[in-house]
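This is your field. Please look over both lines of this record.
***
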Amino acid sequence: MQSVLPSGSNRPISSSISSQFQKQKPVEWISSLIQRYQDQLPTNTGKPIDRETRQLLNTSHTCIINVSKHHLHLVVLALVRVLKGVNSSRWTSEVALSQSRLIVLETLLECLNEAEPTSGRNVERECCMKNVLEEMWILISCTRSGPIRNKAIAIVARVGALHSGLMLSRLERALQALKAEECDEEQNDLALAHLNIMSNVMFTSEYIVKIITLTNQLWPVRKEHLETVCNMLQSILWKWIEGNPTQFSTLQHTSNSQISEVCDALFLAMNTNELRRRAICWPVQMMLIAISPVGLCSLESQQDSESGLINLPAIVVAKKQFLDAIVTVVQTYVTNARPIWSGQVQYACHAAVNLCKCATFVTLSDFFIFNVVQSLIEHVKSVLLTGFRPREMDRKILVDCFVSLFRLKFDNDMFRICLSSSQTVLQLVLVEALCIISTQPRLHWWPKIDMIMSRSDQLRALLMSVIEKVLETDPINASSGHLPLSVSRVSDI
């Protein structure tokens, strides 16, 4: 879906509107401008956008952007109120509701994009951004996919970039609530909502260190929330790695004492006997090792010598034992004549996929322990993409597995298995993985999507088959005509 509003937000405020409001105070001016904007929305006019309405909205949109450069918080609060009004609209068509939401979200995002990060705390500013985050969370929670959800996530990410300190203070309160033995349901829900919001924000290295430090200080949270916190950390770390591949690659051979210290501390805090048995922390522990591989390069020459570990720091020994445990769990499952699926196998496979995915963001000569990756690739593929348990794993992990294997070790066998598989989930994995491979900004050592052009006829047939199967279980909503989640994702290919 293309932008509802045309470009042109950098145009000056029109003279007619400027003269109309020039004698009014800023609050009155903004209120009048926002009211005119709100009156032009489809939820107020009762009809879809036509050419004339689009032009009027574009003029109002442009004026609001320009005014926000001088009165950001007044404008943002006003737009949040407009969005609340849109969301509470009754007796309006779904098309009008969707268009109105998207229009307001686009205006709000452009206002935030015009803003500059500020230092220090400001109560008024923080209250304003809190209102924005709460409204975005409502939209993210109630929409499964599509431009509205994507725009809401983009706004959350922008608020996080502008006010990282605010996000950090809210994270602290959330972790405290999830750690406390006595916490009411409302506080608990707010804490979990904020962890989900945090997962959509890309932080700088400085704030990555602060987030890991804070998590370590308030670790462990209550047992039922351990996995939620680990998932939040993984999302944040992945966004940082994907956004800073050069810096991540540098860490493989040049340590950063600040990053290493906090990563190692949290790794050890998660390495208790009970948590090792439950294995919940394994996937995020693997990422902490990848970001802080200090000392692991020296293990290559000591792999077969347990006595050589005596002179190594305790943290290096703990990391080696952890890596050995992951390899052992995955290999044992593959080689066992009667393998038994368990939580440990599931988390070990997830951790192994994380390691393989990390390896794709650096050149192999840089990566800290390439031999471990080599020993895991075939086993992970065997368990997740050719085994009998793909439904036990989150589909996103399976997609990450396919994409990582494609980039590390291109193998036609993966395509043959997924194309001919009777399991629909593997066919969906193939389609979603190819979408990522073709659209994600490419690092120069990644193989090109051109390598699979010879299979284009098979892939086209697969895509149509997948769409038919998805529609059988999740038909198009008759009133909206929108495709369901799975189809809307794969239709972009």
In short: DSSP finds 24 helices and no strands in the chain. The CA atoms of residues 407 and 446 lie 5 Å apart. The first helix runs from residue 15 to 21.
